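Sample entry follows:

:::
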Amino acid sequence: MTDRLRSVLAFAGARWGLRAADPTALRQLQERRLERFLATTLPRAPFYRAWAGKPLAELPIVDKATMLADFAAFNTRGIPLDRALSIALDAERSRDFRPELDGDLTVGLSSGTSGTRGVFLVSTAERARWAGVLLARLLTPASLRHLLDPRRPPLRVALFLRANSNLYGTLANRRLAFSFHDLLTPIATHLERLRASPPDILAAPPTVLRLLAEAREAGGLAAAPRQVISVAEVLEADDRQVIERAFGGPVQQIYQATEGFLGASCPAGRVHWNEDLVHLEPEWLDAERRRFHPIVTDFSRTTQLIVRYRLDDVLVAASGPCPCGRPSRSLDAIAGRADEVLWAAPLAGGDPVAVFPDLLRRTFTLIDGLRDYRLEQHGAEWRVRLDPAGSRGDVETAVRAEVLELARRLQVRPPALVVEDWRPEPLAGEKRRRIRCVARPVPGEIR
């Protein structure tokens, strides 16, 4: 089968194959594909040969550290970590991301937001299927009509990322003009390129989308893409508001990581799990069973196996069926990562209580006159840096009041809040981290 045919079949299956399906039909499809994966693909990776023939629930839960410790055992080609890492680091230094390993393997390197960079391998065939599914999940009907109309110019896509990849190059063809914008390049250069070739689809991290939105509102960018897509970072409410106002339409989201293409947003605004490709086991973090760490098994991958792989993302499950009608499970929000959870002492005593990042972000959105902030926990202290639009004193007073109100609602003791001077942080290809737990409190430190 040619790669083009793989992409077309993947597109058709993802776009129309599940249109009439209900949740039961989707579960049955997932079970069939998962059963085939466990029987035929799983035993090809040395790590999993001992579990051949076992049901998924009996396989071990792994994480990034487990995989990196024995990288060759988790892929079906026996590629050791040092070989993969060498290719990836050379690409990072040269900014040439085209070289492949063994003639058909793309090697990728994650940004290392959680402290350790992840390495991933994807074959040419997997790239082709990924391209078809991604386009199927993201293209609006108007963009699809443009893509399929030979009388119109190619559909132009501008993608802003820290690193390019053959994965994205797979998308390019005669009807799809793909341009990569390196986040290490100054924003003025990007604005010039966008003015010269306005994109139909703009995909970038929220921090970059906001800069482009502000440039558009100031008259420095005339581009009016029909689709704006948020990638790589959490899309926060204040950024969404500015971006949607500037570009005049909703912001879509992609949920993608080293571990695969996990989900994408629908017209109703929810992020839907790609359950026809990925099996999800929630590891619940709260009594309400809303927030969870995902344990994922990607049964579409055949090179580097992702099986019962625990991510440290914090996701917020949506309740009830989605208004869009899709049968897959959906999320209300991608709240952040495990190290964005802060900790406070309960009024009634006992173990520290988790304060989730979505609650913290909502608290800061309630504060008038605040342009930006950074919040870090260092043991017993919550250290906050504020970028006020007006009086710093008024903003600081409002921050303290809102943090006290949050503590009251959560029935925890107010944290020791230390306000520090604002320090701008360069984008330079790094993901923005507004909230971070640098050091959890030791037992007895907060009370």
